[in-house]
């Protein structure tokens, strides 16, 4: 039962760290979105894509060096490639909802754009959390499992010591 509870505690800590980085990423995303939207004449979805890309870079740094710093660090090229692939899918989900609201329903006021940008971020975040923890930031073997395996090996070595012959 303790292993289940410790596994649940690890998951809760992971979700909290993911949420902290993601929450900061949302602020970056919405801040850049509103800045680009008000400073330039770019259409809403283009401004949103720029903001999403900035947030993706911010989030990768936060996830790699804080949330998932204890995860496997081998194959960084593969990790980054998968991160960018799944982030691109999240970008399409996030900005697809904004596109639908803006051009499908004509909801283009600053408030409406921010609401649908936020909803898109939320939906895309669910996908990103699952894909990042499953495919990108892979788990190293659990410490308990490694310790159990080492203890088992030590017992096996102890029982296999050569027996002395008595004449």
Automatic annotation (TrEMBL):
Entries under Pfam families matching the protein: GtrA_DPMS_TM
Q: Where in the cell is it found?
A: Membrane
Which GO terms fall under biological process for this protein? polysaccharide biosynthetic process
Q: Its topology with respect to the membrane?
A: Multi-pass membrane protein
Gene Ontology cellular component terms for the protein in this record: plasma membrane
Per UniProt, which keywords does this protein have? Answer: Membrane, Transmembrane, Transmembrane helix
* Nucleotide-binding in keyword set: no
Q: What is its main location?
A: membrane
Taxonomic superkingdom: Bacteria
Membrane-spanning ranges: 15-36, 42-61, 82-105, 111-130
Residue ranges of domain GtrA/DPMS transmembrane in the record: 17-137
- Protein family: Belongs to the GtrA family.
* UniProt xrefs under PANTHER family: PROPHAGE BACTOPRENOL-LINKED GLUCOSE TRANSLOCASE HOMOLOG
What is the protein name given in its UniProt record? GtrA family protein
